[in-house]
Amino acid sequence: RRSRLITMLILPMMSCSARLPIYIMITGTFFALKYRSAIMISMYVVGILMAVIMSKIFSRFLEKGEDTPFVMELPPYRMPTSKAIMRHMWSRAEQYLHKMGTTILLASIVIWFLSYFPRQGEAEARKDAAVALVEQRSDLSSEVKADSVAQLEHEFAQYHQSNSWIGRMGHGLSPIISPLGFDWKMGVSLLSGLGAKEVVVSTLGVIYTGDSSDGDEAKARLVDRIKADVRPDGSPSFTPLVGIAFMLFVLIYFPCTATIIAIGRESGSWKWSVFSIIYSCSLAWLV
């Protein structure tokens, strides 16, 4: 039990595929091509080192007692049959679909609800009226009209995200995350990542560009917006150092909802899930 608990608590520090889009976006935006591979690898190395350090600490303070030897008899190897392959494929696919249809779906709905409401009816009406005026102007070229409409949509998306419930939560986190170099937009994206880390990049896309799609054009717009974004004092919101800190925070903080539920079920007590949330967020903040 002691080894299983320690493993459950340090396993989320291994970089999963859901974190990879975040690493790619940050490294591709702020670092030269020759440094990107080293920075990406360093995220994996930091995760491994943090897991080793935390396992040493946990082994001293959690679940006293010696580890018992684990012996498992391996079955004889046989050539796989088509029937066995299909049965195992279906079993794993069923588990994944069950997780997608329950845990991740519920978390995604909650995040969407918090980011969608309350609706900004008056602001949206003003935006629609401004868009209609731009489209009615005959003295503007189609390219200028498209740029103007995109800018109006972007400003409304930022306003809506800032005043949504999750945006207000992001503003409320500002005293905690401002020492890390993060602003409310990064706070909102980190909150949205509680359900699934894949949502972090799409949330930044909505806030900065009004578009959550992952096409090349949307990615290019997101990169341009992030580079151009400034704080009230005129300093850039994102810098290479802030980007490194953001990736480290994403690496260490709160595992996704599915992982938290798995920890609770496998450990037999939800207190370990709560402990995992608290210690991972505290550790991420310190790092």
Number of helices: 14
Distance between the termini: 28 Å
Give a count of the beta strands, DSSP E runs of length 2 or more. Answer: 0
Oligomeric state as shown: single chain
Query: Largest sheet, if any?
Result: none
Element-level helix/strand string: HHHHHHHHHHHHHH
Report on the architecture of this protein.
Helix 5 runs antiparallel to helix 6, helix 6 crosses helix 7 (165-172) and helix 13 packs across helix 14 (271-286). The model has no long low-confidence stretch (mean pLDDT 87). The protein has 287 residues and is mainly α. It is globular and about 80 Å long. The chain is 72% helix and 0% strand.
Q: What order do the helices and strands come in, and which of them pair?
A:
Elements: H1 2-10, H2 20-30, H3 33-61, H4 82-116, H5 121-136, H6 142-163, H7 165-172, H8 174-177, H9 184-192, H10 199-209, H11 216-228, H12 240-252, H13 257-267, H14 271-286
Helix pairs in contact: 1-3, 2-3, 2-12, 5-6, 6-7, 6-10, 7-9, 9-10, 10-11, 12-14, 13-14
Short recap of the structure:
The chain is 72% helix and 0% strand. The protein has 287 residues and is mainly α. The longest helix has 35 residues, at 82-116.
Which key phrases capture this entry?
287 residues; 14 helices; single chain; mainly alpha; 72% helix; globular
